[in-house]
Design a protein that fits this description.
Keywords: Cell membrane, Ion transport, Membrane, Transmembrane, Transmembrane helix, Transport. The chain is mainly α. The chain has 6 helices and no strands. The protein has 2 domains: 93 residues, no CATH class; 53 residues.
């Protein structure tokens, strides 16, 4: 598993999701779709009344068609902003935090000598690990002793900045 490749794909997917969720849906298109649907639904009984003899059957058919289209409109309204704060929305921040904790847990279990609780113990990020994650030499970093949590945060921050450019 190439860690940097997986991290890059995660950051790209995250930024694609944020771009999709922040892109506004054109209001005139939305308004016209609702208007055309409503006009069609309210003129449908007149068109069906001329072809269906029984009024109750016609009313029943119109009810189910209207119920279906009203449901489709309600669903489209609900999924228009998928990452908002409504009860049915996708909790992007929650999944981002869970993923970051999962990455941290995987890395800390893989490299047991990395310990972010005690920075003075010498259990810090090695030069090789930093070079693998960032492509930069750790000697050029202002703080030559990085804890595991700081290193992962810096790498995620750096990659997210690169992904947004």
């Amino acid at each position: 598993m190439d860690l940097t490749q997986e991290l890059n794909s995660y950051i790209n997917a995250y930024h694609t999701l944020t771009q999709m969720s922040s892109a506004p849906f054109p209001f005139p298109l939305l308004q016209m779709s609702f208007t055309i649907t409503d006009v069609w639904l309210y003129t449908l009984p007149f068109a069906l009344a001329s072809t269906i003899e029984d009024g109750y059957v016609c009313a029943l058919i119109v009810f189910f068609i209207h119920f279906g289209f009203a449901g489709i409109n309600a669903v489209s309204n609900e999924i228009m902003h998928p990452t908002g704060s409504d009860p049915n929305d996708f909790e992007m921040d929650l999944y981002r935090d869970r993923t970051a904790r999962g990455i941290q847990g995987d890395l800390s279990s893989r490299w047991t000598n990395l310990n972010d609780r005690d920075e003075s113990s010498g259990n810090n990020i090695t030069d090789d690990f930093w070079m693998q994650m960032t492509g930069q030499d750790l000697k050029h970093h202002p703080s030559k002793k990085l804890s595991f949590r700081k290193a992962v945060s810096l790498v995620i921050l750096r990659r997210s900045i690169v992904a947004t450019k």
